[in-house]
Amino acid sequence: MQVTAVEVAAVCALLAQAPPAYKGKEEKLPVAVAPQPVSFSHRKHAAAGMRCHNCHPEAKTKERAGLPGTELCMGCHVTVKAESPEIQKLARMHSSGKRVKWVRVYKLPDFVFFSHAVHMRAEEKCVTCHGPVEEREVLAKEVSTSMAACMKCHVERKASTECVVCHQLSF
Questions:
Q1: How far apart are alpha carbons 11 and 21 in whole angstroms?
Q2: 30 preceded by cis ω (within 30°)?
Q3: pLDDT tens, position by position, 33-57
Q4: Secondary-structure breakdown of the chain: helix, strand, coil percentages, each rounded to the nearest 5
């Protein structure tokens, strides 16, 4: 079978238009994390009407969503479930000025740039990258943060797949 120059040119033109397909190793999910220093149920807080931005307000304006401090929690828990042993532990941290050392569930490598604010402006939902957190008593990493997963998401949403979008390249 002989391939003509026109056929080769057509295939090259098609390949040049297609975004790069990145294949990497797949993560085995879910990944459990160490227990949190204060038990926290996202499900109970969501059922009470709280939304992600109530505890992570910086997600709308900054790279990192931030983790809530004791002052935010105690805004409600001075009266709500104040007799709970976990809330009493939180109250002791608050009165002594200690911060809660929350255990990170999702962490990207240092060489990857990710901005919550950019994704919020693009009207991406928290559930896309974090899973159905509002249904969880205890969080585990259940959505892949691999390069393959991010690239797939960018391709599906027609977002840039240029390396410099997520990687600071130094030459």
A1: 16
A2: yes
A3: 999 999 999 999 999 999 999 999 9
A4: 45, 5, 55
Q: What are phi and psi of 141, to 5 degrees?
A: -75, 115
Residue 27 DSSP label: P
The secondary structure element, H or E, covering residue 32 is strand 31-32
Other Cβ atoms closer than 10 A to 70: 20
- For the stretch 135-139, contacts whose Cβ atoms lie closer than 8 Å and that sit 24 or more positions apart, written own/partner, are 135/42, 135/43, 135/46, 136/41, 136/42, 136/43, 137/41, 137/42, 137/43, 137/44, 138/36, 138/41, 139/33, 139/42, 139/105
User: pTM score, two decimals?
Assistant: 0.80
Alpha helices by DSSP H, the chain: 5-17, 42-47, 52-55, 70-77, 85-96, 116-121, 126-130, 147-156, 163-166
Mean pLDDT of 144-154: 94
Domain parsing of the chain, residue ranges: 20-67+102-166
Contact between residue 93 and residue 149 where contact means Cβ atoms under 8 Å apart? no
| Overall size of the chain counted in residues | 171
Using alpha carbons, select from 53, 27, 26 the residue that is nearest to residue 133: 53
Residue that the structure tokens 């104040």 belong to = 82
